[in-house]
Amino acid sequence: MYIGEQLINPTDKRLRLSAQLGARGIVIDSRPNAPVMASDDVEAGLWDGRKVAEQRKWVEGHGLTLDCLALDVGSILLDSLREPEKAAATAERLRHNIRAAADGGVDTVKYTVAMVGITRTGVVDGRGGMKCSIFRADEYKAENDARFSYWGTVLPEDETGTKPSPLDARGAPETCGQVMASEAGGVSEADGWRAIEYLVEAILPTAEKAGVRLACHPHDPAYPPGGLNGVHHVLGSLDGLRRFISLAPESKSLGFNFCQGTIAEMSRNPTETVLEAIHEFGPQNRIFMVHFRNIKGGYLDFREAMPDEGSVDMAACIRAYREVGYQGILCPDHVPFSEVDPDRERFFAFALGYTQALLQAA
Prior knowledge:
Layout: E1 2-7, H1 12-20, E2 25-28, H2 49-60, E3 65-70, H3 76-82, H4 84-103, E4 108-112, E5 122-125, E6 131-136, H5 142-148, H6 189-210, E7 213-217, H7 238-245, E8 254-259, H8 260-264, H9 270-281, E9 287-291, E10 294-298, E11 301-305, H10 314-324, E12 329-331, H11 345-361
Parallel strand pairs: 1-2, 1-12, 2-3, 3-4, 4-7, 7-8, 8-9, 9-12
Antiparallel strand pairs: 5-6, 6-11, 10-11
Helix pairs in contact: 2-4, 3-4, 3-6, 4-6, 9-10
C-alpha cells in the first residue's frame, strides 16, 4: 500500500511536487485527456496507445508510476436508455480506449456511473473557515444542484470567489455528459440497473481480453428512497455494490474505484460500513484503487472533511486494508476549499502526509 495522487491535467511542476511529497503513484483524472488523443479532434475522444505510453513514461520520468487513467463514459448510461445509437458509438470508443490503455502499458482505467453528477446542496464552514461541500437531502433544490454539485471534472461553487461558477461550464466536455437530476427525465431502479448492465456488457469482454481492470466509482451520494427528481442511485448501498459484482463474479477485470467517502455516505454508521465493505470486497480482489477520504456525518446529511476530522476511523481503515492484503494506491480526494489555498495543493499535501503517517503507524 502506498500514497499517490489523482490529478487533472498535471504539469511537470505538479508531478515534481507529488514526488517531493512522497507520492509513489499517479492517477490521471483528465477528462478529456488531450495528450493521449489520436488526433486534435478531442470530441472524437480516441486514444493512441503510443501516446498513452508517452504519458506513462513522462510520469515515470518523475520517479512515479502511472497507475490508472480515467475512462470518460460520457452520457452512455442515459443514452443507453434514450438514444441507443449514440450509446453504441460511445461503447465503440470506450473499447478502443481500453485497448489503447493496454497498448500503452496502463492496466487500470476508472470510470463513474454518475449520470447526474456528484450531487451537493450547499457549502458550510469547516475549521478555520474552510469551505466544505454538503449534501442534505431534505434541503435539495435544483438551483443548488446546479451550483454546488461536481460535474465531471468541474468543481462546485465554494463561495470563496476564487473560481468561476460551474454554471459557466454547462455542456462543456469537462462535464462528461452529466446533467442535473431535474434534467434526466427520471431513472427508475430498473433503468439504473439496465444502464449499468449495458455498460458492463459493452466494455468488460474487451477489458478482460486486454488484461485491463475496470475500476467503477459508485454513485455519490446515496439518494433517499424514491430517489431525487425520479432518479435512483442503485450503487448507493452495499447491496448495490454486491449486485454489481454479481454481474461478472468470476471476472478479474470488474472491480471498484473504492471511494471511502462515497461508501461512508451510504450509512448512518460510516466507520462500520466502510470496514464491512473493505473486509468483503478486499479478499475478492475487487478494490483496484482507493479514494482515501473522510466525511462528517452520514447517510443523507454530511459534509466533506479533512481526513483527520471526519466520522470515519481512518486508522482502522488502514488496518483493514492491510488485513485483506490490499497493496495498491491510496489517493486523497474531495478535500475542502479555501481562498488561502485556491488550488488546494496544501490541503492535498496535508492529506498525503496524514495518510503516510497512518501507514507508518500501522
